[in-house]
Amino acid sequence: MDNTVRVFPKDFFWGASTAAHQVEGNTVNQWTVWELAHAKELAQTAHQRLGWMPVWRQIKDRAEDPNNYVSGKGVDHYRRYKEDFDLAKKLNLSALRFSVEWSRIEPEEGVWDAAAINHYRTYIQELRKRGIEPFLNIWHWTMPTWFTDKGGFSKAANIAYYERFVEKIAEELIEDLSYVITINEPNVYAVKGYLQGEWPPQEKNGLSFLIVYWHLVRAHRRAYKILKNVKPSLQVGLAAQLANIQAKRPHNFFDELSTKYMRYFWNWWFLRRTRKQQDFIGINYYFTDYYTGLLRRENPKVPVSDMGWYMEPEGLYPLILRTWSRFKKPIFITENGLADDNDSYRRWWIEETIIAMEKAISEGVNLVGYFHWSLLDNFEWAYGWWPRFGLIEVNREKNCERTIRASARWFAKKIETL
Ligand code: BGC
């Protein structure tokens, strides 16, 4: 007897996610400048920073090579996007989340590059031709250097430049779109760039961090308004990095307090301030984190991904429930995945993730889509090229040859049954 119940709605989006700077190749923005200036230093300090990782011996040569830290030709996605869409189609994906590169569209202040805009227009059409729903992400951390030279998002007056960029997108590209994401992970961007000082512009300043974070709230609100004015039917949201934050010792006073604090500031702070400007909630889920004492994170030692990140894919379930109970808006998992060069955990991760999503839907959550990070192996920011997040493996030494990973083949078959 077949007693399977269809849980995922027929029109559920099964997708993958990418970001311009991480795949396109030949971008010229504040990150490319930073990479070239820091590649040598990153290579020299690799052992000290990454030596603790279980995979250190496998990655050592790559992590100690300055070339690892330069995005360069990327994975040539800017030229080979049609081939990549064909592969996405082969994987039974019905949606793709991608970002547009601001520095291509407005290479100089107020100067718009028609060829770049056309590129993205064709890009969207090519997705549509294949029956893949485009989810356009306006800003995934990279910016033209003329904008960062002016101080980027640290200056209130500069938000106007972002607005103007959003207006251009609204004018030129949204006609053929139903979904737009304004900003990717404002919390990660502000923390890494302004609090921890790991990413450009490498500030370690609590005040700068708060200012930038607040300006991103304002930027999102403005973007929402601009986009909805031009196209009221457009569904607009952001991609928020949310963690499944738990108390290490349930009921312990300090552990619970730290958990509450982290949930509030990491997960909900930004979303609460922009809740009226969100048609859906986009969740990027990678982490389950256990807190103890005074804000100390203490996770189990296994299983960990290639990047040493503790993996608990099923943690997505409580996170979805908590998000749903707070916001009661349609939810997309806008990113989710792992660095796994040997492809030993990816299938397990996706399988657990599907179960977690099924459970949430069965309880009435309006979960409408899932995007795996990532479609292709890509440039993992300050870590460079060695972490492998792709459903599709890319061999940059061999003309960027693409090979579908076994886990992705399994995922493609699984999608047919869901
Ligand atoms: C970011 C991606 C990144 C991924 C894996 C997310 O936080 O949006 O750009 O590659 O995590 O670290």
Write up what this structure looks like.
There is one protein chain. This protein is of the alpha/beta class. Helix content is 44%, strand content 16%. The chain is built from 15 helices and 13 strands. It has helices at residues 20-23, 30-44, 46-50, 56-63, 77-90, 102-105, 114-129, 145-149, 159-172, 186-195, 206-230, 253-273, 316-327, 346-362, 406-417; strands at 13-17, 95-99, 133-137, 179-184, 235-241, 244-247, 281-285, 288-292, 296-297, 331-336, 367-373, 392-395, 401-404. The protein has an 8-stranded parallel beta barrel, surrounded by 6 helices. A 3-stranded mixed beta sheet has the order 6-8-9. A two-stranded antiparallel sheet has the order 12-13. Strand 8 and strand 9 form a beta hairpin. Helix 13 runs parallel beside helix 14 and helix 14 (346-362) runs parallel beside helix 15. The longest helix is centred in the middle third of the chain and has 25 residues, at 206-230. The model has no long low-confidence stretch (mean pLDDT 98). Beta-D-glucopyranose binds at residues 19, 22, 184-185, 188, 241, 284, 335, 373, 380.
